[in-house]
Structure formats: C-alpha cells, structure tokens
Amino acid sequence: MAAVQDSALAVAVCHAGGLGSLPCAMRTPEAVRREIAAIRAQTDRPFNVNFFCHRIPAADDAREQRWRAKLAPYYQELGIAMSSGTAGAPRLPFDERMADVLVDLLPSIVSFHFGLPSSRLVARLKIRGIKIVSSATTVDEARWLEAHGVDAIIAQGLEAGGHRGHFLSPDLTRQMGTFALLPQVVRAVSVPVIAAGGIADAAGVRAALALGASAVQIGTAYLLSTEATTTAIHRAALASDGSCHTALTNLFTGRPARGIVNRLMRELGPVHSDVPEFPLAATALAPLRSAAEAQGRDDFSPMWAGQNTRGCQTAGAAEVTRHLAG
After folding, report:
1. Mind spelling out the 3-state secondary structure of the chain?
2. Do 304 and 259 meet the contact criterion of CB atoms below 8 Å apart?
3. What pLDDT is recorded for position 86?
4. Which end of the chain, N or C, is more open, meaning fewer C-beta atoms within 10 Å of its C-beta?
5. Residue 85: per-residue pLDDT
6. Cα 7 from Cα 248, distance rounded (Å)
C-alpha cells in the first residue's frame, strides 16, 4: 500500500476493530515518526508498520542504457528530453536509522516484505517486545521465516496486488494461489499464518479462516476508500472494466508486482529482461509517468491491484473493514 495510504486509513481500520497498517518503505525516518504520532493521537489500538528489506543492487550501466533505449520512442512521442533525474520517493530497505525510530516509538507489530533484515536489526526490535511478521510466497520461505524467529507469517498468494514478497527464489513458477499456498503453510509451521491475496469480501475471509488462517491481510479492497491516497488516474482504472485484467510486471520497479495492465505492459510485455534491478527501473520511467499523467493518461503509471478488483469499495475504510468482517 506504499503511496496509496497514510495514517488516516490505518486509523480508520483500527477504529473498526481491524489491525491498521502503515506502509513505510517510501518514507523517511522523520516521516515515519510523524505518521506514527498521528496514529497514536487518534487511537490507542495496536497497529502495524511495514518495511521492505531488499538489497540495493550495484548500478549496471549497460542494462540501464538498454532500458532507456526501449523507452526512447515514448520520450520522443511526449516531446520530453531523456533525463537522468530521480524517481521521487525512493524505496529504501530497513536500516539502523529506521530501527532507532521503532525502538523509540515501540509499535506493536512490524512487518517486512522480501524476507527479513539482518538478525541484529530483528533482535533490536524483538528485545523491546515488538512482534515480527513477514511475507512468504512458498512453503520453503515460510519455514525459513519461522526458523529466523518471526511471530507470524503472511502467506502471500499469487493473486495479491503489488510486489511479490519472494526472497529465496525469483522463480515465479514456484509460487501458488492463496488457497493452495495457505493450508500448506499452516501445516508446515507452528506460528500463526495470515492469508493474503485475492480476498476482498466476507466470504473470502471466512474461506481463509476455514483453511487455517489466523487472520487475513487485505489491501486492494481499500484502494477506492475515502481515506486512501490513491491517485485519480489509479482510481479511474480501478473503476473501469479493464481493472479485471491484471498481470505481474517488472517494468515499473524492476521486481515482479501485480498491477492493472496498461499501455506500457501491453507494448513491451509485462516482464522484460532489459529492466534494471529493483528499485532502479523507476528512475527512467518517472519523467514519462509525470508527462502522461498531466494529460490524464495512465500509460506509464504502476496501478497496483490484486486480481479481485471487484471487491474495491467507494466508502470509508471503517465501513470497508466492517463489511469484510461480515
């Protein structure tokens, strides 16, 4: 949910009895402090903060130039110069500075995507009583996370919107749908398992619980909610008939993530070998995205969404939460 929500949505979910979550992968330590303060000013309920824990890759100039060559015709079409500028808010891995913030503020739960940060950083959180959660896309990843001390595991099915959480293998053929993955993870580990991916209504929640999930994590259903910061272009795509067509793509960030199919995905193919590694791909795309969005076009915009976009509700997040709870 990075870039599509802030503390307001998390607070609304907490008020309705859910576990609100704050995405922090694109926030500075100072911004995380402000958002946690905003949550605490409005609720005394527990909440989660979520981080990425990837490794920043070394620059690959040859690959970057191949990627820019693929994008050059679009720059020409839009009449803008090829730029080496930044891509806006960076996607940064969890580090010492962020750990300092959490040790100081002590949120109840911290969740990670792409595995776990170093054992030393995890230990800093756990010793202060913070519960640790992370995503698994395979049974092997779930076993690895349990062996490394997590308190709960998110079983992320292939239907889920946004970035895949895999970290042991990039082979997408090893990954499964939520209701195939979930019971296998439940059998393989002893910690609580949280289901995620393609669940967007109360019936889906009940089905996940029946298969052994201790809880359900939902994102896509909130993308049209009042408190979401989803852009107008993204909202329009979610409300269109085309929202049912999603695909895994590496074009926008360099790492497979599920989003609504748009022009760039159709013309280059959703996965391309010339795309720089995560998160470096976004830099060259940023000027194209800005220019197209200024014209009301979503040609170069990542519009993350799971496969069940029909579960999106144009309502307050508290109402969405109560609907999901049945």
Report:
1. CCCCCCHHHHHHHHHCCCCEEEECCCCCHHHHHHHHHHHHCCCCCCEEEEEECCCCCCCCHHHHHHHHHHHHHHHHHHCCCCCCCCCCCCCCCCCHHHHHHHHHHCCCEEEEECCCCCHHHHHHHHCCCCEEEEEECCHHHHHHHHHCCCCEEEEECCCCCEECCCCCCCCHHHCCCHHHHHHHHHHHCCCCEEEECCCCCHHHHHHHHHCCCCEEECCHHHCCCCCCCCCHHHHHHHHCHHHHCEEEECCCCCCCEEEECCHHHHHHCCCCCCCCCCCCCHHHHHHHHHHHHHCCCCCCCCCECCCCHHHCCCCCHHHHHHHHHC
2. yes
3. 55
4. C
5. 54
6. 28
Domain boundaries, the chain: 58-89+231-309
Out of 10-24, 51-65, 104-118, which region has the weakest mean confidence (pLDDT)?
A: 51-65
Q: Which of 81, 76, 24 has its CA nearest to residue 47? A: 24
> With contact defined as beta carbons under 8 Å apart, do 78 and 53 qualify?
no
Pairing between strand 257-260 and 246-249? antiparallel
Contact by Cβ (8 Å): 178, 193 = no
CA 321 → CA 12, 23, 199, 316, distances in Å?
A: 9, 18, 12, 9
Q: How confident is the model at residue 90 (pLDDT cuts 50, 70, 90)?
A: confident
Q: Which residue has the tokens 């690895």?
A: 144
**pTM of the full predicted structure?**
0.95
Pair of tokens at residue 199: 């669940």
